[in-house]
Amino acid sequence: MRDLANAAKEAKTGTAEARKKAEEDAAAIEAAFTRAAIKTKTELTNAAKTAKEDFELIKASGQATADGLQAAFKRYAEAAIAANNGVATDTLKSEAAMRGLQVQTDATGKAIVTAMGSGKQATDGFTGSVRTATTALEQQNAAMERAIAAQEKANDLKQRAIDLENKRLNQDKEGFSLNTAGNRAVSGESQASANQRVAQRYGNDQVGNADAIAATELARKIKEVRSNPEGSIYGLAPGTNEEVTKWVNELARLEQVIQAGKTKAAEQKTNATPSEPAAAQQGKTYTINISSVGSFTAKSDVDAQNLIALLQRAKLSA
Q1: CB–CB of 215/202 below 8 Å?
Q2: What is the pTM of this model?
Q3: In terms of C-beta density within 10 A (0-12 exposed, 13-18 middle, 19 or more buried), how is residue 126 classed?
Q4: What is the dihedral of CA 66, 69, 75, 80, to 10 degrees?
Q5: Statement to judge: residues 122 and 145 lie in one domain
Q6: Domain carrying residue 213
Q7: How far is CA 127 from each of CA 39, 120, 131, rounded to the nearest angstrom?
Q8: Which residues contact 313 (CB under 8 A, 6 or more apart)?
Q9: Are residue 100 and residue 138 in the same domain, yes or no?
Q10: Is the Cα torsion angle 54, 57, 63, 67 positive or negative in sign?
């Protein structure tokens, strides 16, 4: 028991001596910092915290002048930079600028807080910044203009090359062959034969009509494709219907345009050159007999012409 008591006493004595030694070392370090006129990191951090609290208190009081607020912020900013190893954060720089201060780096690389230039110096600095920004924008705009001009030139050259190739092949921009009059021609046929096909399908008055020529060519192509369901024609694989459907829709559109034009021309002719009195025209009828089908009665020249045209087309399509 006596041995245990002695061991406890020695341990207590050792702990006291270690504590005393640590306190002496701390005091020596603090004395060294004081003699060197420098502060520890903890002191710098506490000083920055205190300076910020002082600034916020002064600002909230509403009693400080603009110069006073600037001085209080300058003290806080310098303390914050010192606590951050001489580096100013972007947030601190922005706040300083709002207070009329600027954070600069001296020859040693340390950030310092100073008042912004005033008078002519500040004006010249602002003017220089505006001039630099304006020059940069002008250069950027000029580069964009050059890029746009180059693209437009490239597009123009590409279109010219396409036009030259179409001219060499004697075809329009959609790939249809042209006749000597510059209209679409039915491929693989003479001009006389092409005109005859147009006349048979849409009437003599449609010979030379670009829509009628295109419609005649489409009708021929549709008929040929449908006559060869198992083989490849016009680059279409057997069973391909999407492209043919487009042709059929385009043919229907063209024929509507053609029929509208024929109807309008007939109405204009009737109104412009009446060959009979109005009463006679109103009472005039046409009876058209078709074997194995029956007879139809048309009450005007326009009705008769439309009916004949429709029957001709039905006969050619059959």
Answers
A1: yes
A2: 0.31
A3: exposed
A4: -120
A5: yes
A6: 176-273
A7: 42, 10, 6
A8: 201, 202, 255
A9: no
A10: positive
Could you say which residues of the chain have pLDDT below 50? 118-119, 278-281, 292-293, 318
Amino acid letter for position 299: K
| Residues 162 and 243 placed together within one structural domain of the fold | no
Give the residue carrying structure tokens 């198992």. 230
Tokens standing for 168?
A: 């060499």
DSSP 204: G
Give the Cα separation of 73 and 54 in Å (integer): 9
Q: How do strand 111-115 and strand 101-105 relate by DSSP bridges?
A: antiparallel
Largest CA distance in the chain: 154
Residue appearing with tokens 């006596």 = 2
If asked whether residues 201 and 165 sit together in one domain, one would say no
How far is residue 190's CA from residue 196's CA, in Å, rounded to a whole number? 10
Number of structural domains found in the chain: 4
Q: Look at residue 119 in the predicted model and tell me its pLDDT.
A: 44
The reported pLDDT for the residue numbered 149 is 93
- What whole-number distance in Å separates Cα of residue 110 and Cα of residue 103? 10
| Residues 97, 84 share a domain | yes
